[in-house]
Structure formats: C-alpha cells, structure tokens
Design brief:
Helix content: 25-40%
Shape: globular
CATH superfamily of the largest domain: Alanine racemase
Structural class: alpha/beta
Strand content: 15-25%
Number of domains: 2
CATH topology of the largest domain: TIM Barrel
CATH class of the largest domain: Alpha Beta
Distance between the termini: 55 Å
Bound molecules: pyridoxal-5'-phosphate
Number of strands: 21
C-alpha cells in the first residue's frame, strides 16, 4: 500500500500485506466458497450454522471449538461419489477422523484411507467395513501390517521393498493373499507449498519411476505371488488447483502399467491417482467442483489409456481436504486487541497453533470474520494470533476486521476441517478443542473437549 492510501486503514501493513489485501472488503460479507453451505449471517448480524447461532453454540460448548456442518459434509461426499460414479472415492482419513465422521463416510458409500494403526482402530471401532479400507504409510510397522491383514483391509499401498518382504511373510503365515497397490513416485511437483508436495523425486514416499524401482517392485510382487498386485498408485501433493499435474502423473503411471504388461503379460485392474484437490481458504482461491474434476480426470485417464493401448483400469481417488476442509469453521473468542501504532493490529484468540498449526507449518493463509455481530466500523487490516508462547503462533496472517473488534467478540475462521484437529497438539498444555456437529437446529459433540485431567492422566511420574 502506498503512503497516501495508508490513512484509510488503521493498523495497515504498509508494503508487507499481500497485494490482494490492499483494498478493504466488507467485513460483514460471507464469501460463499469459504463457508459451509448452511452458514448465514442473520438479520441480527451473527453467524448461524445448521440453523443454530454461534452465540448459542459458544454458550453450550465453549470456545475454541470446531463447528462441523453435517449437511455440508454429507453433500460434499455425495458430490464426489456422484461425480466420480464408476470410480472409488477414498476419503483420506488423516485429514480428520473420528467415529462419527467414519459413519458419515460409510453411510454416504465412500471408501476410507488410513495411514496408521490408530486411524485403522478408529475406522474399525466405528464399524467401517474393512474391505473398503486402504492402508497407507511409508513405514508401517509389523504390528500395524498384522492388524491390517487380520482385519482384512481391502488394499495395502506398499511403499518400500522392506514392506513388501514383511507383508509377504505375514501373508504366507496367515494363509491370505492381501491386495496391494504400488506407490509410485512420478516426479511431478505439484504447484503448492514445498512441504506438502510429495511426488518430486527427493522425498520419502513411494518407489521411483524414473530410477526403475517402481517397475522392480511391481515385478517382485508379481513373481512372488503371495500378494495380489491390483494396481499402481500416485499422489502428487496437496492443495492443488491445476489438473495438469494429474495429467503428467497419469501418463507416467500408465506408461509403467504398459511396461508391466509388456514384461509380464498382465494389465493391472486398478489405478489410484491420489487426492490433493484444493479448497478455498481465502477469496483468492478458486477451487474446481467435484464435477469438473471428475470430467477432467476421467478424460485424462481415457486419453492416456488410449495412447498406451491399455484397457481403462478402475479408477480411485483420495480426497481428504476437499471433503472435510470446507465443512468446518473454528469458533474462537477474542481475548486481547493490541494496536501497534503504524505497524499492525494483533487480535489474540483463545486457541492458536495448538488447534491450527497450518499457518506456522505451511505458511498457510486463512480468513476470519467477527461472528457474533455485524459491525459498521471501518475495516482495519489485522493479524489473528493465538495464546501460545511462540511468536510464530499466527492463525490468520492478514485479514480485514472491523476497527471495533474487542475482547469478548466471537471470531470464526473457516476452512479448518482438514489437518487442524488431526494435527492439534497440547503445546503449553492447552487442552484440544471439541468437534461439534450441527444439523437441523441441533448440535452434538462428536469429539469432546480435552480437559486438564486428560492431560494429567498421562503424566504418571
Ligand atoms: C494426504 C493424502 C491424501 C489426501 O490429501 P488431501 O490434500 O487431503 O486431499 C490422499 N492420498 C494420500 C496418499 C495422501 O498421503
């Protein structure tokens, strides 16, 4: 922002704010793509979710709390299942998993990915059918693999030669023939933050395609015959908006598929192209609908199959964030407001990096709005921070809030359904917030708030 504009904004960022935040926007407006579908701002000015006001929810459940719009979650499941009819949609449980969500995923007919014994335990505890579970991970332990085999999970996505050996030994002993996919590193770098891009060569996941390791792994599984090789798997990263990465990935994986056919005479029946579909965290993000993604991805797979003279395998995809991310917002209460003259306004809330590490970890951008009332005050560019003993404890780097934002205000941060509760910590011994599902005018706790007693219960010294 140039100096002559700065006067319009109290607490502006000078040159430091992103360009798109140089024009204040209406602090009361809700941009639909950022919010769960039932969220509205009432005539009285407060937000409502599932027909319940945030004030009532704060009163009943306290803050901070993750508020889940159950209708929104179900409609996103249906969007993906409908758009990808003829393919299998695996919900990536690592984005957020609890028994209630597992049941929603089951009822909506989706499949489920887990990537640890703990996630598998949640899925099984909720009664999810094991044959619709995929098991991921670059370092699955023998005991995790044993449980997966015993439970009869539908597919195990193998990630190393050691894992193939371990799993083969387990399968021989158990007298079963687990279905496996080979995770292939296709050398595509998704257009996203470096730490969440997982298909370039220099990273821990998968078998390298370029180096020939992926081909060798597939041949080893076919030769040993203890495992049933169902197909190849590729996951190129997260928060991806541009499908050209999937095009390159599909082409490379299908070239490998053709190479395996030529060498061993088998066409593998399944193909998994992973997840990573982007969602809107700010007004600058413009995600594709499930329908558009399905059209583009199916077209890519069909044309690449044609080019390699392959039958079209049964496709699967693994969205996590795109299903649960937009269904949740975090409700905080403002505790302090500090206006550092000429620098920045800091608005502190009663949570922070322990309930949302993504800003600190990935430099992620979020949005926020005062949720308990509308305001006619001028917009100020503010930074929303948490209560932790760490200056990097930032929730929302830059957002326009009304100049009269004050202690006691409720503040809502949308897009927190994925990788927030699932990555939550107890830093500073702050108990983790509850997840509250709201639907048809009623709310229910699906993950309760942690208490200091919970924390002390682990401390057995
Ligand atoms: C994390 C992950 C996903 C889900 O990613 P989203 O960005 O949440 O869609 C899917 N597949 C694999 C293998 C993953 O590791």
């Amino acid at each position: 922002m140039r100096a002559h504009e700065a006067g319009a904004l109290h607490g502006d960022l000078g040159q430091r704010g992103p360009a798109w935040l140089r024009t204040p926007h209406d602090v009361n407006a809700l941009v639909p793509q950022l919010w769960p579908r039932t969220v509205t701002r009432s005539e009285a000015g407060h937000l409502e979710i599932g027909g319940v006001s945030v004030a009532a929810l704060a009163q009943e459940h306290g803050t901070p709390a993750y508020l889940l719009d159950e209708d929104d979650l179900r409609s996103r499941c249906r969007d993906f299942a409908g758009a990808f009819a003829g393919a299998d949609v695996y919900y990536a449980g690592k984005s957020f998993l609890c028994k209630a969500v597992v049941r929603v995923i089951d009822e909506e007919g989706l499949f489920l990915d887990v990537c640890s014994g703990g996630e598998l335990a949640v899925a099984l505890a909720a009664g999810f059918p094991a044959e619709r579970i995929g098991f991921h991970g670059n370092n699955k332990s023998v005991s995790e693999l044993t449980r997966a085999v015993e439970a009869g999970v539908g597919r195990i996505i193998v990630d190393s030669i050691q894992e193939i050996d371990r799993l083969s030994a387990l399968a021989a002993e158990a007298g079963t023939r687990p279905k496996v996919l080979v995770r292939v590193t296709v050398g595509v770098e998704a257009h996203t933050h470096e730490f969440i891009a997982t298909a370039h060569e220099d990273q821990k996941f998968g078998f390298s395609l370029a180096g020939g390791a992926a081909f060798q792994a597939a041949v080893k599984i076919l030769d040993e015959d203890v495992l049933e090789l169902r197909g190849l798997h590729s996951h190129i990263g997260s928060q991806i908006f541009d499908t050209s990465g999937f095009e390159v990935a599909a082409r490379r994986v299908l070239e490998l598929q053709a190479q395996i056919r030529d060498a061993r005479g088998v066409e593998l029946p399944d193909l998994d192209l992973g997840g990573g579909f982007g969602i809107a965290y700010t007004t600058q993000d413009d995600p594709s609908s499930a329908g558009d993604l399905a059209k583009r991805i199916n077209k890519i797979v069909e044309s690449e199959c044609e080019a390699a003279s392959l039958r079209k395998p049964r496709l699967s995809i693994e969205p996590g964030r795109a299903i649960v991310g937009p269904s949740v917002f975090t409700l905080y209460e403002v505790g302090t407001v500090k206006d550092l003259d000429g620098l920045r306004t800091y608005v502190s809330v009663d949570g922070g990096m322990s309930d949302n590490i993504r800003t600190a970890l990935y430099d992620a951008s979020y949005s926020a709005t005062v949720a308990g009332r509308a305001s006619a005050a001028e917009p100020i560019l503010a930074r929303v921070v948490g209560k932790h003993c760490e200056s990097g404890d930032i929730v929302v780097k830059d957002e326009f809030l009304p100049a009269d934002v004050q202690p006691g205000d409720l503040l809502a941060v949308p897009g927190t359904g994925a990788y927030c509760r699932s990555m939550a910590s107890n830093y500073n011994h702050v108990p983790r917030p509850p997840v509250v599902a709201v639907r048809d005018g009623a709310s229910r706790v699906i993950v309760r708030r942690e208490t200091e007693d919970d924390l002390l219960a682990l401390d057995v010294g």
